[in-house]
Amino acid sequence: MKRILIVSALTAGIVAVTTGAAYASQYIAYEGPGFTGRSVLIDACGPSDIPFGGSYKWYGDGQAGRMYNQPGTRGPMHFKLPADDGAEQRSPVGWKSIFIEC
Predict the structure, then answer these.
(1) Closest by CA position to 49, among listed 78, 34, 33, 27
(2) Would the keyword Signal turn up in this protein's UniProt record (predicted)?
């Protein structure tokens, strides 16, 4: 009987972790204006440097994004992207890093 309970608890834990990881906010940085050139997807929790500043798209899916004008999320937060909505800008942005709140 104990064996069945342990397996059930493990299965429930795996399902809970997998479900939580399935939906994450995403920041896509583009090299050029108008969503052109190379791009990078940032969806990791915590701090990430942004390699491109030509334009961006944000897909808020539960986590907000704090934007910084310096690498390494140093200095004051410049802007906060919403946790429950999208945003985009076709022209260049000065953000150098993001902190996705998870």
Answers:
(1) 27
(2) yes
